[in-house]
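Q: what does this look like with guanosine-5'-diphosphate bound?
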Amino acid sequence: MMTLTKKMIEIRNILQQVGQSSSLTLPSIVVIGSQSSGKSSVLEAIVGHEFLPKGSNMVTRRPIELTLVNTLGSREEYGEFPDLGLRHITDFSSIQRTLTELNLAVSDAECVSDDPIHLSIYSPNVPDLSLIDLPGYIQVVGQHQPLELKQKISELCDKYIQPPNVILAISAADVDLANSTALRASKRVDPRGERTIGVITKMDLVDAAKGAAILNDKQYPLRLGYVGVVSKAPQTPGLFKMGSTNPLSVVAKHERSFFSSHSTEYGPDAGVNVGTPTLRKKLMQVLEQTMSSSLQSTSDAIKQELEEATYEFKVQYNDRPLSAESYLAESLDAFKHSFKQFADEFGRPEMKELLKSELDQKVLNLLAARYWNKPITDLSVSQTEPDQIADLPKADPASQYWHRQLDASVSSLTKLGVGRLATTVVASSLQCHIDRLLKGSSFASHPFAQAAIKEAAAAILNERFYSTSDQVENCIKPFKFEVDVEEREWNQSRHHAGEVLKKELQDCEAALGKLESVVGGRRKLGEVMGFVDKARKGDIVVEGDGKSGAGGFSAALLGRGREAVFLRDRADIIKMRLLAIKSKQCATVKNKYYCPEVFLDVTASKLASTAVLFLNVELLSEFYYNFPRELDLRLGRHLSPADVEKFAKEDPKVRRHLEVIRRKEMLELVLEKMESLRQLEGRERERTAAR
Ligand code: GDP
């Protein structure tokens, strides 16, 4: 018969993983008793090892769901905490330490928790049993314990002592049975005493006649009866100096000799049950019977659950199979595909455009600094020097001054660190594109994978950064000394420079328009601008620093006025320069000093084209080659199954899908096991009947 219990316990453990629905469990033996009733000693005597937490500070704070597995034929004894991934712990004091830590992790304020600790013990010396140890009932709440603790413990125990569980109610012989908290609790949920086993501990503390009377208790008769035990041997002075308790073999021997020395009261003919071996046997029998009788109802409940899960799988997920691995692989493939598409579309022309528009901005800045530098003086500086204003169209292009200006501008452009700039522009654009691709992929709901992918991109780009920028810088070196321009190039740039200026003009005008609406209309802005203009020309002397306002205008308004004047002047200059570029004078490279905008644009174009050649080889091709491989490395084979599972479950939809499948698989497995169990049970029954 014993294989039945083992199999049922196995099923019970699988069911525990399926879910907490109470109809989906097989019964277990629940151990209750008040503190110091000897509960731990009894459990340890059954297991044959000390492994439970000891101490005065209420050490059992969480239920311990203990599975004992008989390993017949093996000599090894060990424990496992499956939830913690702790396997094969052969040192029982280490099990004891782990249990103590797990219990003490429940805070003093919370004191008890209903989150169970799962512990399995494998040994040739234990029976197949499934036991649940609960915090002991307390009489008085301690100083640092919450007042409602008594209540909390009692509620926790009530949750577990419901049918079909068997109750192991522990009471000490030296305490009046009428006062036993354990029996009182069991009487509440099992008034006819049908699924309670009474254990009377500390039988050595009462005289034999009284002991026998307790075991024959008629006040609360139990169908499964009472068993008397002694689970502590008297301390022999000098013999067990190492610890306060006796080895359990000594305890067992002591118990045996104690009961046989009172054979009249406790002997075979006395009609009472005594001793830990008797208790073990009883527990095995009772558990097996209880499990057997709930087999049918549990199996019905499982069938029902399975039907529901199958239905959900069909309706919600169209029977589509899915595993964490396949989900990851599909997501990764889809992402790599979208990356490939991007890579096909983003090449040299796109890089050049990016870089050129960055350089266009630099050119505009240079022009503003060297050519369009009409200073917008602060109001406090009322005198401006007219020479500072460079009205280029009226200037003489033959003058050395303009030669130097253009040379200096070109030099600033070629020496601004094109290598670094170009590499940064392309690298950050690639990163932006990866971010965009991620947002549109199934990784969008997976922070973990997103981070891994971004890191992969950054790692490759960072690794190539310095060598790429050095290479690019090197290859544009010739332009630092001379820029040769052909007429064809000039014409192209003449057109392009015009476009850039037009765009800049639009921007200026748009900004002006915005200022108008901020200030409250064109007229208002015009008034402030008029004031700023006058102050600049020196027509008005502004007192103080102008920061606190002047001429009836607030400081903020004056600020906007200055901004508007700046924009207006810039727009005027740009209009002028646009005319200049369109004029005949700018039609040829020979007049380059007259047309710095065009010349700088030619230079910028050459810089961009040359840089892109090297960027393509040093950065882009490398990135396109390495990135998919880096993805495989980071999200492929190297992830542990647990990480893959964690990844997949980040997405709630996928999580639910996986859970339904897992639940379905588990239920199917359990049902299959139950079926074979029922066949086994039938055969057993036939065999017993035949005997
Ligand atoms: P728990 O708090 O219910 O787990 O009780 P313990 O198992 O820790 O026992 C409480 C105290 O009673 C300890 O000091 C044990 O040594 C002692 N004790 C347990 N069983 C017996 C027994 O059968 N006889 C005697 N004399 N003392 C026992």
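Confidence is low (pLDDT under 50) at residues 240-244, 375-393. The CA atoms of residues 161 and 533 lie 92 Å apart.
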